[in-house]
Amino acid sequence: MADHMNGQAIQEEYFDVLTKTGEKTGITKPRRDVHRDGDYHRAVHVWIVVESTQEVLLQRRSDCKDSWPGVWDISSAGHISAGDSSLVSARRELHEELGILLPKDAFELLFVFLQESILNDGKFINNEFNDVYLVTVVDPIPLEAFTLQESEVSAVKYIPVEEYRCLLAKEDPQCVPYDVNGKYGQIFEILSKRYKQNAEARALTLQKQLNRYARVSLEAELTGFSSADKEALTLVVKAARIIDQIFFLQVWYSNPSLRDWLELHADESQLNKLKWIYYLVNKSPWSSLDENEAFLTTADSAVMLLPEATKPVAGWKGVEYRTSFPVVKPPGANFYPPDMDKLEFELWKNSLPEDKKKEATGFFNVIKRKSERILDELLSPAQQSGSSDDHDLYIVPYSEEYKAFLTKASDLLHKAGDLTSSSSLKKLLHSKAEAFLSNEYYDSDIAWMELDSKLDITIGPYETYEDTIFGYKATFEAFIGVRDDEGTSQLKLFGDNLKVLEKNLPMDNVYKSEDVIAAPIRVVRLIYNAGDVKGPQTVAFNLPNDERIVKDRGTSMVMLNVSEAKFNLILQPIADICITEEQRKYVDFDSFFTHTICHECCHGIGPHTITLPNGQKSTVRLELQDLHSALEEAKADIVGLWALRFLVNENLLPNTLIKSMYVSFLAGCFRSVRFGLEEAHGKAPSFCILTGHFLSFDKVENAVESLSREILTIQGRGDKDAAKVLLSKHSVMSQPLKSALEKLEAVKVPVDILPDFPIANEILRKSV
């Protein structure tokens, strides 16, 4: 079907028809029918704002447009064609209408705005969800640099942002109308707030945020290490630094450039220094302790120069723009296209053969767009290879996505493996180095579980907390330390009893596993950590998360030497404020530490690989998706308490532990919930505080068993709806909880620790 404009036939555009709430219906219709019938559809709006002059670029719409011909409009706008994505459409519209080609990191999604209007005596009905993007350029792009699409744009000009707001407010007939007093007007509020912030006030806020962390120096004895072992340690620390770089990229695609920019300008002012320090704590512009609220804006970000983004202009070096990031932390991090939603992913996944479905939901790959790659390569869609029915999404393994980093890290690990005298460490380092390049981590994770070395190393992609859209993709992390042999020997009891605990779990036998294996537990004095360690510091971890290995070999656990510092600096002061006076005597480090051990052990028991009601095999992670992490942490907390009580009943732990166990755990909940209810480890403890039973010893045991049964059964059934109900019910900020947290804030009890690593820092200093 074709329309005719100015005597030329053009292919008619089709749109995805949406519901009134913006979801796709699965129906596509021609453009003119959509506007005739008033169907809801989606479009993109792009604002180019000049930082130095506080101006916005406007375009005058072509006289042949079917809506608002010949009047001034925002920089660029256009419909999203059927099957196309938002960000690619925004980039393409800017290129087609104005002749400016920018990378995706120039586009900041501000908000989505529903525009509902009727024009042309009711013949043109516009019910449009607009994705509003901001492009921030440092200086004006010369008007002669633009290449205007005559059928869409007749002229462009700059106008002060405030002047444009006034024109819209008085409904100037020469401007396309936007309700600046409604939701669309928030773009002016965003820009005003962004560029009128007081530097002194910002510095004070950042200092307060930093003061929530208590600095702690973590050291370990290297006595007994040979010179070869120390050289191997140096190489592994260097590899861990590379792991850090991968994690920065996994969080968000412009995160590395933001990091480099902040470091470069850190010495220019006190504010810049505080930005840099707090950024290093969070490893992103989003504050971990503030429900991931942004403490930076795109105005703080890196400036990039693109000499060839437009046609050349004599004496002009090219477009300088700010690399952007959204105010709201993206749920898919940098594992998926930023404009991909769950429905698009599910439709694509379901079209794949079984082996590719498993790959799509696997730990060790990212999902990308072909249309985005085409724009990146400066190619037109007509040059795209592949069949016409190819889906836009495709899979890229980590070994390819992070090849430059992983090749260097692999080389360092191989060299370290050649040096070490420990056969198990040698095996781990070589197998992990190979896994970095092959993307096959099974053998290297088995080698990690079998590690028996004084130098203890965990390195690779493991946790899935950053992927809050599905919980599928693993982030890279590294923990390097010295094994505490005495502490390790004292914890054998817990790992050895996992089978007994699984057999007696408070859930139906059908959900229990016969294959639980005793879990080795290692106590490690930390020398260095890197990668996915941001904000609150990891106390312990139970790995791997790969269900194949959990089923075949179980898991292993590592306890880190940060627990005592957290207890002394944070938990004890919390108990003094939040625990009733008569029960404070029960709060002690041994109980806190013992529950931490049981928490990690309980990650290794309970449902993992499950059978769904229809007989299909699956995993809890795949079924619960984005809810898996929070429910799994809640399980480890609550079932951890149940397990401690069980071990006491079996005379494996002293009866005197019971009261101190419950009260210390309650104090620990107040500690963890301060991480924020958006964080998995903060969401889980809110279950316990809200039950109200944990100060009543005669009720707590039944409460623990009942909640354990409910959580385990939800996991065993893979029941996402039930998980959502349970989390919604418990993961809220109650008034008593809010009051307690305000008391802790008032007396400035630290929220967590910020470790210094003198040994690793000296290694890195010498290697520069």
SSE blueprint:
Layout: E1 2-5, E2 8-11, E3 14-18, E4 24-30, H1 31-37, E5 40-50, E6 55-61, E7 72-73, E8 76-79, H2 86-98, E9 108-119, E10 124-137, E11 153-160, H3 161-169, H4 186-195, H5 199-210, E12 213-217, H6 227-251, H7 255-264, H8 270-282, E13 286-287, E14 293-294, E15 303-306, E16 319-322, H9 342-350, H10 354-360, E17 365-369, H11 370-376, E18 393-397, H12 398-401, H13 403-419, H14 423-438, H15 442-449, E19 455-461, E20 476-483, H16 485-490, H17 492-496, H18 498-503, E21 521-531, E22 540-543, H19 547-553, E23 556-560, H20 563-578, H21 589-602, E24 609-611, E25 617-619, H22 620-624, H23 628-649, H24 657-673, H25 680-691, H26 697-717, H27 720-730, H28 735-746, E26 752-756, H29 758-767
Parallel strand pairs: 5-10, 12-26, 21-23
Antiparallel strand pairs: 1-2, 3-4, 5-6, 5-8, 6-7, 6-11, 9-10, 13-14, 15-16, 17-18, 19-20, 20-21, 22-23, 24-25
Helix pairs in contact: 5-8, 6-13, 13-14, 14-15, 20-24, 21-23, 21-24, 23-24, 23-25, 23-26, 24-25
Written description of the protein model:
The chain has 768 residues and is of the alpha+beta class. It is built from 29 helices and 26 strands. Strands 5, 6, 7, 8, 9, 10 and 11 form a 7-stranded mixed beta sheet that branches. Strand 5 and strand 6 form a beta hairpin. The longest helix has 25 residues, at 227-251. The chain is globular and about 85 Å long. The N and C termini lie far apart (64 Å). The model is unreliable at 1-9, 379-389 and 689-694 (pLDDT under 50).
